[in-house]
Amino acid sequence: MARPEEGPELRLARLWWALGWALVVFITVSCLEPPRYVPNLHLWDKAEHALAFGGLALWFGGLVRRSRYLVVAFVMLLFGGGIEIAQGVMRLGRDMDIMDFLADGVGISIALTALYLGLGAWASWVERLIWPSREPS
Fold first, then answer.
1. Spatial distance between the Cα atoms of 24 and 28, rounded to a whole number of angstroms
2. Which helix (H) or strand (E) is 91 found in, with range?
3. Cβ(111)–Cβ(54) below 8 Å
4. Which of 40, 114, 123, 129 is deepest in the core (most CB within 10 A)?
């Protein structure tokens, strides 16, 4: 069991964090490169923002202790705001849009709710599926 001041005890913590940061890089590149290079998912743009930022918040929320969920949400909001500002100043065919930022916030809020309702242990659950406890029953 993890100590209260630490995140969940994860065997694959480095892998989970590395995959999370790969997702951050992917979302950053997808949001900042010219639109002609980005695949069209044929979803509503605001839904894409909510899914991307909510997914990131849920991902990283599963890697930290419960008391850090609000920090994860705040960092994700800063990330979303930074992306919108960068889109506005880069002039590569992207526009700064407050509605995209609000959609990011909706996704993050949904993820935060899911984390508090119990999905925050998702990484531990996956690891238990991969490596079941060898303790005698």
1. 6
2. none
3. yes
4. 123
